[in-house]
Amino acid sequence: MATYESDIEQTGPNVTIKVAGPDASHAEMNEVVTECCDRMRYESATNFVFDLENVEFLASACIGSMVELLREVEPMRGKIALANCDDNVAFLFKVTKLDDIFGIFDDIEEALESFKKQDARF
After folding, report:
1. Among 35, 39, 61, 111, which residue's CB has the most CB atoms within a 10 Å radius?
2. How confident is the model at residue 121 (pLDDT cuts 50, 70, 90)?
3. Which part of the chain is the STAS domain (predicted)?
4. In 3-state terms, what secondary structure has residue 31?
5. Is 66:33 a contact under the CB 8 Å cutoff?
6. pTM of this prediction?
7. In angstroms, how far is CA 52 from the centroid of its own chain?
8. Residue 81's closest CA among 96, 64, 100?
9. Start-end of H helices in the chain
10. CATH number of this structure's domain 7-116
11. In this predicted model, what pLDDT tens digit does every residue of 66-89 receive, in sequence order?
12. How far apart are CA 103 and CA 79, in angstroms?
């Protein structure tokens, strides 16, 4: 049974993960990534939005877990987006240039809309 406190919801190929805060642990993020991979394999999930509204600090190990998920998602032409980022968290992604890889959006709806635009290109 999962021990993480994050809420995970799926609608079609889109999965929204509301990460519990204010600082997500590496263990929690690993469990979330495992759950996302399971949904990709067994429930046809391809796109993932991490809602970071409650997160004030994100350790580099957590970002590493998200990059691992990205490696799983890319062959499926899926995407990972971040929503509701605290300024400090968004800055971390910008400084590391990971904002080019993970789309950063003001809210969940905007992130989900970006997936529709991506699907229209194929």
Report:
1. 111
2. very low
3. 1-115
4. helix
5. yes
6. 0.90
7. 9
8. 100
9. 26-43, 60-73, 87-95, 108-120
10. 3.30.750.24
11. 999 999 999 999 999 999 999 999
12. 8
Q: Can you read off the two tokens belonging to residue 28?
A: 């929690």
pLDDT at 104: 96
d(CA 81, CA 66): 10
Percent of the chain past pLDDT 70, that is, above it, reads 92
CB 84 within 8 A of CB 52: yes
Cis peptide before 22 (omega within 30 of 0): yes
User: Are the C-beta atoms of residues 86 and 55 closer than 8 Å to each other?
Assistant: yes
User: How high does pLDDT run on average in the chain?
Assistant: 90
Parallel, antiparallel, or unpaired: how do β-strands 23-24 and 79-83 relate?
A: unpaired
- Beta-bridge mates of residue 82: 50, 104
DSSP label of 9: E
